[in-house]
Design a protein that fits this description.
The chain is an all-alpha fold. It has helices at residues 4-16, 21-41, 47-68. The protein has one domain. The protein is 66% helix and 0% strand.
């Protein structure tokens, strides 16, 4: 846990006075999702959920990466004015 990402989360929570509730939610979501996948793996009736669900999520991620890239799309400035009502 010495990587900059973990230190940034700790620094952000201490600097803003937010003591981890918002920063803990992605970690908690990841842990619960992992527990859900493990539970599905032990149920033979739910095997298709793993066979089709995990590749689908991977394809969605690949599409996102292909469409938006790693840095995302920068917002473009619009040069028109809003109509006056």
């Amino acid at each position: 846990m010495n990587s900059p990402q973990y230190r940034q989360i700790l620094y952000r929570s201490l600097a803003t006075g937010n003591h981890g509730r918002r920063d803990l939610s992605p970690i908690l979501a990841f842990v619960l999702l992992t527990a859900s996948i493990v539970a599905i793996a032990f149920d033979p009736d739910q095997a298709p959920a793993l066979y089709f669900g995990i590749p689908f999520v991977g394809l969605c991620y690949l599409f996102f990466w292909w469409r938006y890239g790693r840095k995302g799309v920068a917002p473009r400035a619009v040069e028109e004015e809003a109509p006056v009502a």
